[in-house]
Write a structure and sequence with these properties.
Helices cover 84% and strands 0% of the residues. It has 134 residues and is an all-alpha fold. The protein folds into two domains: 6-54, no CATH class; 62-133, AhpD-like. Helix 4 packs antiparallel against helix 5 (79-91) and helix 4 (62-76) runs parallel beside helix 6. The longest helix has 22 residues, at 112-133. It is globular and about 40 Å long.
Length: 134
């Protein structure tokens, strides 16, 4: 294991599960327990990204962090992560209308190809989310 701070890791695991859902997180954590190579990145992601980044106390709440993350993933062109974080944003109370506005704003700064791809992937995640509600 590459965990340097168990408390931060546990905090990160809770936040990660709250935002992305156990159906997304658990298989990754379980795979990491079986495969030390995969486990190394799962530890880093859980402790550093979720425990230290998302777990910071203060000004930004989970909804705001979700909207920022969608914009950043649009800029980076990371469709799989964008889908996961679109679902997480919906779970964090971000509306479909707010997601659309974040994507439009990101498109202005990231470029049309990045925006079109982000819209396509976010829509796929939104449709799956809405199908589960009905």
């Amino acid at each position: 294991m590459t965990i340097s701070d168990k408390k931060t890791y546990e905090k990160g695991l809770q936040i990660r599960t709250d935002v992305l859902g156990s159906e997304y997180v658990k298989p990754n954590i379980d795979k990491g327990k079986e495969d030390p190579f995969h486990g190394a990145i799962q530890d880093v992601v859980t402790e550093y990204c979720w425990g230290m980044g998302w777990g910071r106390e203060g000004v930004l709440n989970k909804k705001q962090r979700s909207m920022l993350t969608i914009a950043i993933l649009t800029a980076l062109g990371k469709p799989a992560e964008l889908k996961a974080h679109t679902r997480g944003a919906l779970r964090n109370g971000v509306s479909v209308e707010e997601i659309k506005e974040v994507l439009i704003h990101a498109t202005v700064y990231c470029g049309i190809p990045a925006g079109v791809d982000a819209f396509r992937n976010a829509k796929e995640a939104i449709d799956l989310w809405e199908d589960k509600k009905t």
